Amino acid sequence: MSDTTDSGPMLAADGTPLKESLGRALRRQKIRALALIAPLLLFVLLTFVIPIVSMLVRSVENQIVSDTLPGTIAALSEWDSTQGDAPSEDVFQNLFFDMFNAAEAKEHTKLGTRLNYENTGLASLFRTSGRSMDDIGEVFQDAIEDADARFEDGAFWYEMMSGAGGDTLLADRRTRWSALTGDNMSGDVGFAPSQDIAALLPITTAAYTDFAIWTAIEDEDIVAEEDPWEAVYAALAVDLRDPSRVAAIASYSGAGADALQALTATEMPDLTFTEAFADLDEDWVSPDVWETVQVYSPNYTPGYFLNSVDRELTIDGVEARPENEQLYIKLFGRTLWMSLIITSSCILLGYPVAWLLANLPVRTANVLMILVLLPFWTSLLVRTSAWKVLLQQQGVINELLVWLGFVDDANRLILMNNSTGTIIAMTHILLPFMILPLYSVMKTIPPTYLRAAKSLGATNWTAFWRVYFPQSVPGIGAGSILVFILAIGYYITPEIVGGTDGVFISNRIAYHISRSLNWGLAAALGTILLVLVLALYWVYDQIVGIDNVKLGG
Amino acid sequence: MKFNKPILATMALGLSAGAVGADGHMASDMTLVSWGGAYQQSQINAYADPYVANNPGVTVTWDESSAEAVAKLRAMNEAGSITWDVVDVVAADALRLCDEGLALEIDADEMLAAAPDGTSASDDFGDLLVGDCFIPQIVYSTTFGYRTDMVPDGVDAPSNICDVFDLETYPGMRALEKRPINNVEWALLCDGVAKEDVYDVLATEEGQEQALAKLDTIRDSVIWWSAGADTPQLLADGEIFMGSTYNGRLFAAIEEQGQPIGMMWDAQVFDLDGWIIPEGLSEERLARALDFVKFATDTQRLADQAKYISYGPARVSSAPLVGKHATLGIDMAQHMPTDPNNAANTFLYNYEFWADYRDDIDAKFQAWLAQ
User: Fold this and answer.
1) Is B64 an 8 Å CB contact of chain A?
2) ipTM (interface pTM)
3) Does B20 touch chain A (CB under 8 A)?
């Protein structure tokens, strides 16, 4: 290496160092290659990777609880479920303001649906209670308006609440709204809370700011012209319950000070929010409901995954689900077991056909090939429905067997609406995926090997088993992987001919996606299925070796 | 050139309408979502064709996705692009869509036509206006049909819901829907629970077990269906003796195909089907959707639909107008689930109950099925 210092780096024809020039040429080549695959890469990324990842993320996502009830969740962290009591008044007070906003944005029912997956009855609890938030607020509104008619006027409120220095509060409430609705809630509100009033009446200011943001951005109205929500009156009543705030009002001199001071002299309704919610529905004061809310308050939850393996998340940790609700582990096991049976029957039926295809004269083999491919080109639904006609008790197969006298008319075979039906129909449907890779591998095995083996004294069986079969194993491997992985995710055929004991886990996934709308659970089940397939692929690689898989050549 | 005609017509219509200042801002394309099959055809005949005849230039596209409407609307909403204008769903799905904020809230008196005698829409539909978003169209029922030629000798044809659970008198296979709804109610009813107590019992753990235990007694003789067309096919092929399905499907099998099937109306469960308008449509599309829905749910149109399919119109004022079947010429009134002779013993789908208990009981039902 010492002589390079003498002669300098080796140069290319254009005088640049050879290393650099070579590097540039290689880089260009790489970019060109990348550009060539870019459309496919983008396509796969956009239509496959992103949707799948976003679906899988749903299996742990759980922001809906803290987004819908932010104040309640914060207050609830103080609550100790082991005491067996309902949470404190503070929790119910926060619940009222959270629910009021959620009902205004029509988000409370979504939360009800979410929590109903975990605790039956919460859907209607949230739905019916949401409607009554106005009524609770009205109790306070009536009292305040009776005490001083100025509080009936939207413009009066606007003047009292407006001012400078409350920008953080505004931004904070805006963030809450966007978390709740999923919109970004940007735009001019036409209102800014005053710092003084925020210090004097913190709950009222927060409630009024919520009202102002919603009015300006969602309803597209002018805040000053609208009368505040019932929740704002309730908030004022709550603020007035605090003696230190009442004392501060006495020395307050901002807008509306005299009205507020007059208000402190009047009696406010002594309705507590705990009573109000208990009146709506006794379930609100049941610790059971609050346990569910507390357990599912974090932004991410293992709950869906636990449900997918027949466990549940409770306040005391992970527990097995009641026996009469256990389903998924059994279904996973059945899916794997039946896919294995289907794969084995495909090997048994497909191997001789592929051998024939590979060894018959080209013309005959081509005809046979069309017979293999023809069902492949027919719609899946048509083929499955055809199996229905064949397999049912009054179907073609049973009729034939009865006519031939193999089966008694009164005891016809039950060939469908059970696992037998699924296995028969799916074996037929997946058979081409076994035959084609087998065929393309067998095509490459020279027939001379068999002849050589025989001429060396091997029997037909030895020649096949010791010489031919080992060379066809890569085809079996490729076919098995294809068939098994396709089978494990099948859902139309089991749905139509599977009855009750022939359905797969995919049927439950489909049910949760399209019927029960429990997408989190569907995502968790899907993720487990994906991991199972990958694990099996890895095991296969360890045992057979993925190099031993050939789709042809 | 052929394709340009509707567009030109639309433009001309738009221009003239703009000139007189009426219905100027309505979209000219509309995607309607329904269930396909004979039901959708009856809607085309009774609603869509007359509407297009009145509004030349409007193009109607049909999508047969009602079975997955809730899931698809949710996905569309998340993607921020709603491609449907008016969607036909069962009432339970309408409630869920309303709960999720995916369907437009309806003010019946303002948005729907009054009856010819001036009765307001809300009075005309009455209790059938369930939830805030649902515009009822028809009343259908889930009931049993049986093979008349498979009734054992010397025994009366099945006429009581509990005959379904009586394997001794009525041996043979049954078809039931592969979900708990309706089946558990029937099971409790035939296990000695009074009709008015069914949902109270079903709300308890023991009640749910009782229902499944009753279903267990016929379990080996049941084929579970998931598509409404399954039961008529199974009956026609002689695979089953009796099975539950929608009454319109049975009507088609009996009257249109002449199958030897009898109706057992006892303990039929009424359910409603109707329209919802998705939340988040543009102003023009919303105007068109509302215009269509107002037309398609007026008294005459609802009565017209009964000419093509045996589902009862959801308006009180439509009932007297129900006439004869459009092609068969038979009187349709007696085939309606709401006909007094058929409605001696009925249930109404309990939306509130099932909104809460659907997931819970379904989990138990599926676990029971998988045993």
Assistant:
1) no
2) 0.86
3) no
